[in-house]
Design brief:
It is built from 3 helices and no strands. It is mainly α and about 80 residues long. It has one domain. It starts with a helix and ends with a helix.
Length: about 80
Amino acid sequence: MHFWMFWWLIFPAMGFATAIFKRYMSFKERQLDLAARTAGEQAAQYAAKIERLEAHVAVLNRIVTDRSGHLADEIEALRDPARLN
């Protein structure tokens, strides 16, 4: 008689455990989706920031290489407002 009581308890407990496991896995899947979405947004922000920095470096490179002889004069002219008039 105790043997049959064991099965009457095990089967419902297994069903209950399966339901809990399914809900847990669904929760973990939603967590992973949110983490992936957040990582994608951060990657896009970093890509935009890198693009802006590359543009700044290109401008600085052009200033240094193209007008290196006049660069010191232009900087001094910017420091002295009387020279601009």
